[in-house]
Amino acid sequence: MSHHIIEFNNVHFTYPDGTDALKGLDFRITHGESVGIVGANGAGKSTLISHMNGYLLPAKGTITIGDLQLNKSTINHARKTVGVVFQNPDDQLFMPTVFDDVAFGPLNLGMTRERVIERVNEALTTVGCLNLKDKPPHHLSMGQKRAVTIAAVIAMQPDILVMDEPAASLDPKSRRQLINLLKEFRHTKIIASHDLDLIRDVCTRCLVISDGEVTADGRTDEILLNEPLLEENNLELPLSLQHK
Fold this sequence. Notes:
The chain is of the alpha/beta class. It is built from 9 helices and 10 strands.
């Protein structure tokens, strides 16, 4: 299933202010993998996420999604294949009601109104927010907004699900619901997070990013139990492991 594959080859990116955010990233993620991306603040995680469906394009190097190299002419393909949930829900919620926000993507795929309604109801039910569908997004709590942005991406039924800090601002119950939801998502998923316990729960593989480069890539338990490696990258053991 090549359409589930995402590959970065020597990817570089520099912001207009001269900040070198990515400095030759190399990795390949294949069908069905659950991959965590960890690193200190400023390591390049969010910039990396923004490259995964063309919100940013590399200054040098290539990104391949499925069988196609990512560029301006293939961005639409990338955005159908890769669903991204960004760190700030307010960046993704802009319609008058929750229903309209979740319906926006499927409508743009040309679905019938009846199919769109089915998709919206399914996605909102999956994240436990069907009762919010007629509410204005700006009236929701941060946890509710985050759940709705996840529903909006799920409604597109992407082959690859990408999430940037999905558990931020969630209460313990909502965080557990998110973890259960992610475990049920059977396609490829990529999660960037400071919540190393969430990464440990959900992801079988882990990439460590530092100063715009991949400094480690391996099985999650091996990476997150490696205290010297974590310390070198300004990270700590997951909380669940700190007092054992």
